[in-house]
Amino acid sequence: MTADIDLRPIVGLLSNESEQVVEILTIGAIKKHRTLVDRAERMFQIAHAGCRDDDKEPSEAYLAYLDVTIEMHAQMSALTTLLDILGRTPKV
């Protein structure tokens, strides 16, 4: 099931790396993901994304919220791939 979401370039890039290298990268990705989640939540609050009026131009804050949310989800795909390669969730 997770093979459908693995990012093959990452799998190939890390295919000959040690477990220690993959663990270090995975821990870094977990920390980065937490930061992106926090940013997305803050931007959501600032932009009041749920109250956007479709008749108006989108605000800069709303566009920033969408941008950071896209970045968060893209990074989550990389993190998921790293977790699959490592085969476990490391302590952070």
Number of DSSP helical runs: 3
Number of E strands: 0
Radius of gyration: 17 Å
Output the structural class.
Answer: mainly alpha
Largest sheet: none
Give the strand content. Answer: under 5%
Tell me, rounded to a whole number, the average pLDDT.
Answer: 89
- End-to-end separation in angstroms reads 26 Å
Task: Kindly state the percentage of residues in helix.
Answer: 55-70%
Low-confidence stretches: none
> In sequence order, what are the helices and strands, one letter per element?
HHH
List keywords for this structure.
mainly alpha, 3 helices, 92 residues, single chain
Report a brief summary of the structure.
Helix content is 67%, strand content 0%.
Describe the protein in words.
- The chain is built from 3 helices and no strands.
- It is mainly α and 92 residues long.
- Helix 2 runs antiparallel to helix 3 (60-86).
- The longest helix is centred in the middle third of the chain and has 29 residues, at 19-47.
- It is elongated.
